[in-house]
């Protein structure tokens, strides 16, 4: 009972802290004269990708697999769905007719909104995993992982808003919506955990979130950092490996 109360406290704390981290990250570029987008931020992003990859493969997926029936690899199938569904949705959202000259002038302004929708979708899935986490240890691990990733993703989103010429008022309103996605996901996960505790639905949500974590790491964060070349490739790969190794060490002792 005490462990359950502790897990609930961590989840509620996570909802507040992750909202603050996400909103603060979006707002920060407006507080700086020239937002830093150089090597330190790039290396931190690579580290967060390794952490998310390790969390998905070494923590979430094994936990989900242990709680689902063993007559079929349900956890792996749901993991694949969590990995591929966001890819399909984002590609369909970006599919469009050849742009006219007028549309080309609006492309710079519209691109950050696509990124906002994608990040909000992932944030809701991440919050769902946090809220549905069955143990105190997993709740605490997810909080650490999401804190590292959320601040960096939010700062990058804020820089996109600033560079696209969005007004401060509109950018802050969109940032608040993005920041609310994870707490809303946590609330949904808490409801799922409370009403369907011990059922396969909770484990299914965790497996889906594991796929989403790996999607963000492998298809969103890493390609952007490796193509931008803001830091040496060896350093980026080293930070990726470090993040994954840290989650591996955590899996040994938790």
From TrEMBL:
It is found in: Membrane. It comes from Prymnesium parvum. It is a multi-pass membrane protein. The keyword Aminoacyl-tRNA synthetase does not apply. One of its GO terms (cellular component) is membrane. The chain crosses the membrane at residues 12-32, 39-60, 72-89, 142-164, 171-194, 200-223, 235-253. It holds the Pfam family Zip. One of its GO terms (molecular function) is zinc ion transmembrane transporter activity. This is Uncharacterized protein. It comes from the Eukaryota. The keyword Secreted does not apply. Keywords: Membrane, Transmembrane, Transmembrane helix.
């Amino acid at each position: 009972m005490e462990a359950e109360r502790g897990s609930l406290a961590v989840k509620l704390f996570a909802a507040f802290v992750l909202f603050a981290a996400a909103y603060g990250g979006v707002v920060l570029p407006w507080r700086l004269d020239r937002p830093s987008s150089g090597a330190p931020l790039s290396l931190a992003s690579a580290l967060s990708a390794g952490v998310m990859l390790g969390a998905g493969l070494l923590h979430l997926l094994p936990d989900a697999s242990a709680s689902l029936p063993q007559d079929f690899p349900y956890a792996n199938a749901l993991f694949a769905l969590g990995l591929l569904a966001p890819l399909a949705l984002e590609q369909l959202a970006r599919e469009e007719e050849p742009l006219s000259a007028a549309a080309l002038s609006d492309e710079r302004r519209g691109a950050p909104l696509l990124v906002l929708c994608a990040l909000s979708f992932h944030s809701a899935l991440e919050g769902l995993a946090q809220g549905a986490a069955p143990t105190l240890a997993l709740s605490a691990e997810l909080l650490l992982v999401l804190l590292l990733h959320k601040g960096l993703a939010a700062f990058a989103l804020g820089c996109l808003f600033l560079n696209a010429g969005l007004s401060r008022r509109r950018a802050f309103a969109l940032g608040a919506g993005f920041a609310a996605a994870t707490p809303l996901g946590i609330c949904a996960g808490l409801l799922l955990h409370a009403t369907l505790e011990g059922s396969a639905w909770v484990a299914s949500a965790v497996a889906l979130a594991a796929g989403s974590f790996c999607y963000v790491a492998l298809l969103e964060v890493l390609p952007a950092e490796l193509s931008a070349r803001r830091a040496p490739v060896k350093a980026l790969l080293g930070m990726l490996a470090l993040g994954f190794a840290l989650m591996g060490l955590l899996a040994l002792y938790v």
